[in-house]
Amino acid sequence: MTPPPDSDDSVVSLASERESTMLRAAMAANVAARPSAASLEDEEGPARVLVADDDTATRELIAATLRSSGYEVEMAPDGQAAVERVARGGIDVVLLDAVMPRLSGFDACRNIRALGEFVSVAIVFAKTDAKSRIEALKIGADGYVCKPFEETELLVCVSSALRMKRAHDRMKAAQARLERLRRYDALTEAYSFLYLHERLDAEFSRAERHSEPLACCVLDVDRLKVHNERGGRSLGDAVLRGVAEVIKGSIRDSDVVARYGGDEFFVMLPATHFAGSLVVASRIWRDVAARTFTSPQGSGEAQVTASLGVALFPSRDVRTKEALLQALEAALLEAKRRGGNRLCVFQQEGFIYTPSGDERG
User: Fold this and answer.
1) How many domains does the chain have?
2) Reduced to 3 states, what is the DSSP secondary structure of residue 95?
């Protein structure tokens, strides 16, 4: 605790020493009831606690108690130092003395909350009035403890704050996993069908706004069902993963490849003209046919071919996003109708077929 500026030095020294002595005595009285380090083990790894107190004896006593109970502990001499340490990351729980120089525990708590990364914060009081406790909770503290406190009281406070931190971290990790599942196809690591349509909306709007071309193609793996029957589902999955890798290796970072159906992929090529889309589609078509796909379980290997439909916005018959999707489906359907293993481009004069399987060099 920091004394008022006009306090006599001797009085200040005695008050500080008395506070530390009272705290030490109270904690020592309950040492037999202290939880063991094993009882505080956490499957997510040891917790790191930051103890901020301007009284050296109090700070070191609290730190020693927490360390003996299995926590990793760092110390800070005031609120400003505590905020700076939390900003560097790696802290789970912060114990802030309410009254400290440079930055009080209340102001330090506000600043820590403003950092954005969640850290559990508990305020340590030398007084027990309800107003101070209510203020601590109002500014975002997760708990509080009052001096002099027993050792068990301190450990329960830190343990409770840690549970809150761990629960927050688990929830954040679960949200990240859900977002990844929403954004990516689990099997191929291509973008998901849902993300594709969100991105297509954005790219189509941008193409309209800036009068830029938007080329797209849909790829269908020919006779995938046959390979599933011959080599099992694992071989079919290996083919799909491999085809996704081929496509990713043939496009730019700004392009998009997404799982479009069971055996279909959608490739979006922003700011790409007709000639450029043909180059990319032809490269994908040839590279898929040139690769051998092997089941990770050793159940077989396969070589496959692909049928591709290509369409371009804007063109005479493609003025809307719906028309672009219809043109793609029509081009792919025509490629399959012609026997597959070919690339079909939709244009207003009709379909252009280039190349076909027997034209591969």
Assistant:
1) 2
2) strand
CATH number of the domain that 240 lies in? 3.30.70.270
Q: Among residues 220, 328, 316, which one has the least CA distance to residue 269?
A: 328
Give the whole-angstrom CA distance, residue 180 versus residue 191: 9
Q: What is the mean pLDDT of the chain?
A: 84
In the predicted structure, residue 26 carries a pLDDT above the cut 50: no
- The first and second tokens of residue 296, run together, are 């990770």
Domain of 173, CATH number, reads: 3.40.50.2300
Structure tokens at 81: 């130092």
Task: Return the pLDDT at 297.
Answer: 74
Q: What's the pLDDT at 72?
A: 94
pLDDT value for 117? 87
Domain span including residue 319: 193-359
> Which string of b and e fits 122-132 if b means at least 16 CB within 10 Å?
bbbbbeeeeeb
Q: What's the pLDDT tens digit per position in 62-81?
A: 999 999 999 999 999 999 99
What is the distance between the alpha carbons of residues 126 and 349, in angstroms, rounded to a whole number? 85
Question: By mean pLDDT, which of 24-33, 143-152, 170-179, 196-205 is the weakest?
Answer: 24-33
Residues 201 and 146 in one domain: no
* 27 within some domain: yes
The reply to whether 257 and 348 lie within a common domain is yes
Residue of 225, 103, 230, 86 whose CA lies nearest to 165: 86
Q: Is residue 185 part of a domain?
A: no
CA-CA distance, 150 to 139, in Å (whole number)? 25
